[in-house]
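Appendix B. One record, verbatim.
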Amino acid sequence: MLSIDHLSIEFLSQTVLEDISFLINKKERIAIVGKNGAGKTTMLRLIAGEMQPTSGTISRDADLKIGYLPQVMLHKDGKTLINEVLGDNQDARFKAEADRTLIGLGFERKDMDRSCSEFSGGWRMRIELAKILLSHPDLLLLDEPTNHLDIESIQWLEEFLAQSSSAVLLVSHDRAFLDHVTTRTIEISLGHIYDYNVSYTEFRKLRQERHEQQVRAYLNQQKMIEDTEAFIERFRYKATKAVQVQSRIKQLDRLERLEVDLEDNSRLNLKFPPAPRSGDFPVIIEDLAKTYNGADHPVISGVTFTIRRGEKVAFVGRNGEGKTTLVRCIMDQLDYLGTLKIGHNVKIGYFAQNEASLLDESKTVFETIDYVATGDIRLKIRDILGAFMFGGEASDKKVKVLSGGERSRLAMIRLLLSPCNLLILDEPTNHLDMPSKDVLKAALKDFDGTVICVSHDRDFLDGLVEKVYEFGGGKVREHLGGIYDFLRSKKMSSLHELEKKDNNPSENSIKENASTAKLSYEQQKAEAAARRKKEKQIAEVETAIAHLEDEQKQIESLLSEAVNQTPDNFQRYERIKHEIEQKMYEWELLSE
């Protein structure tokens, strides 16, 4: 379908991609991964035809249709949402498909006749994505498509791409999205590519092995070069060693120098400053409501919950359902109705979606962080900057020359170093690459204060939060457990809601009341027996889950050891993990 042969590209005499060759076949779903600046977006732009290589060729089938979603795009105004998506195709069948696609991406039916100019940048990106998906291209090029999508829209897009006949070339920092969509991973590193015919998670394991081999080879070569140069320097002026010296000099000249990225910044152990102790309840909300344009347009209402000291919670839900609105109420940036109390001695650290625009453009990267850092952490500023891709000369750049993504990373570092005991993060990972997200997540897990995180990044939230607040329909619902516990329960809940929507509620109530009145003693007895049976089954399933989780912990302990590893251990671990998932599903059904 498309082949890339010996492709190279340079910017300002700096090689970004060098002698790259690979094929894209029909229906393949490929992840392009690598550090920021490695050349991932450049690769997509080359394939899309927006850039030309310095050398090499890109060969496409004559009738190949490409759909390209860049990170940044220019939008056109003047049309309604539905007409912008339909274009010149007013066919009724196509309109039905357009409706399904737009609703899947989070729009509502009432949005269809709104002008495109009324939508924010994130929603405009969804409009462009809808247009691309509806064009049914042979090859989809997607550059960070989940940055402006909520969890439900991401899940819809995953299913859409899985069923699509298009080939997909995808750049994303969302690990879960990559794992659910792609089956092949191409890493760009130091201008070269490494092609793995596996999912992203499997790639990480293989990449670690390859990286360790490269490091060993690189260090061995460096030792050989050092020894050779020492020999040359020692005997350079001895006539009896002239032949050997010249031989060693030629040997070094012919040597193909190995390159390897020795920085493994993802392992940096970054910690927040100790959180000043706050009261037991940093946030108490009772019957809070917020409206726009008068009382007829409520965003949220009847919101009541309490966040305890040390809890880490997530705010999730479709865009526009009030997550950021409630955050701004907590920050005392908006008026509201009801009660909202901030606890004793609470010091808030806030990362807003527009945080990057608030930086002082006249300062350098280093000065920005040095200004807020205190104590021993000031000795580690260079290491911290390196972990967020500001190593070396990049730390001396002025803020005004940084890209939007670089500014967001810098703002996140500044927040990391500010002493606080309640962190509120509004979409913190949108512009962070995977190593940076790992550093941030590890720091948040070790943070001894309270965290509220507004995010659609499931991988980032997994293992970080223990409670989820779901925003939808103007209400906020509390779910105990992690993000995947919430997603499992949400799927079950939505299925039941769909079933209820197919029926008439008032008629159901009448029939149910009449049926209950006619229940005989024997029927009531039978129902009670059935309930006891279900309760017994639930207890048995809970016991089975407990045993399986104990066995899982034993195997995890075994797998953490460097010796005695066999394929059977991994197979056994995967089998138990699958059994736990099945038992949890059975428990949910019985409980329901």
